[in-house]
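S1.2 Input.
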Amino acid sequence: MTKLLLSVHVLASIVAIGPITVAASMFPRFVKPQTGDDDPSGEERTPATAALLHRICRGYTVVGVAVPVFGLATGAQMGVLGDAWLIVSIVLTAIAAALLLMAILPGQERLLAQPAGAAADGGAGADVDTATAEATRSAAARLAMVTGIFNLLWAVVVVLMIVRPGSTTGA
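S1.3 Output.
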């Protein structure tokens, strides 16, 4: 039973958390207004792409609930719920979940709600457009930072799950 629980836990981690980390990392780039010299690859950034990345994050968040559920079940089956490496992993997972639910997803929603076409192109209202574009870039940069922390937390959890420092169950 332990092997089945562990397999489901690892598969859920890969299938659910992986897409969230990738889509959340890409989102700030696609929500920022283009100024023409931002992207030398010529890749067009559209609000539809940013909205899709947000839907991926939101959808896989629901599926991601399986990761700690099966993780706790696996830990209980292995008798390691009191081990320091697992407690630290649980705390880091809770922090990552809080970041996702309280900062990343709401931050994405706020950025998507901002008016489209906020790029500074001159003409009437250029000062307002410039201010809006700058605010969007600033918010996207903050969101990128929080997303980076989220991804780093998951990387640390993965290392703790593999190395299991101080574990008597073997590695």
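S1.4 Remarks. The two ends are 18 Å apart (CA to CA).
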